[in-house]
Amino acid sequence: MKMIQCVSPKTGGTLEVLDMDVDTHQREIKGRLGVVPQENNLDPDFSAYRNLLIYARYFGIPRREAEQRAEELLAFMQLEEKRDVLIDKLSGGMKRRLIIARALINAPELLILDEPTIGLDPQARHLIWEKLRSLQAGGNTLVLTTHYLDEAERLCDRLVIMDHGKILVEGAPADLIREHAGSDVVEVERTPEAIARLTGLGVTYDVAGDALQVFTNRPHDVARELFEVCRHEAVTVRPATLEDVFLRLTGRRLRE
User: Structure pTM?
Assistant: First the structure.
């Protein structure tokens, strides 16, 4: 991501952004990008509105045009009432929305977001998702990193799952779920009876703590078999998710 932003030097190979080489056209690339960093780096000495105006100067946007864009972006991110509020008085969700507004001040052709909703409450996350989807609908290209797999599933047309710097799989979320997890997941407590029945059926399963998980396109058949031997244990059926795919591909060991 930092190489795409022309912040870190390229480590090898070739890299073009908007048909320009990152080694020779850094200034031009930066002028056509919008960047939402993971950390909140707004200027605490200024209000929300002034943060946008000052940032617009880096792109040489005329003052009157910058003022109009700032007002429009505050309205777009539902921050009109916080127009003249200092940064320290804003909530975490408001700061994230303001950073996204700031990244849009130069009408970028490519918007790069690094963990855009990290640490936010559900309401703030859903509001930001709504705004990002509206940008997509308007033709904007978004590139984002996230550890929230439900976020990736909601927002991405195409994604890659990476582990230790290597791409494991890539494609549309629905295609990856169907290929690597099936349509549904049957979960049951890990007991000798459940293991014996699944083994007898020739059904493969994953162990997730005290539970067994069966990834299948025949969830009701598997659940019915388990109900016969697991009458006192809960058997649940739920749709497979992108998080299931991620855990199956990268394992469940804690990463530091």
Answer: 0.85
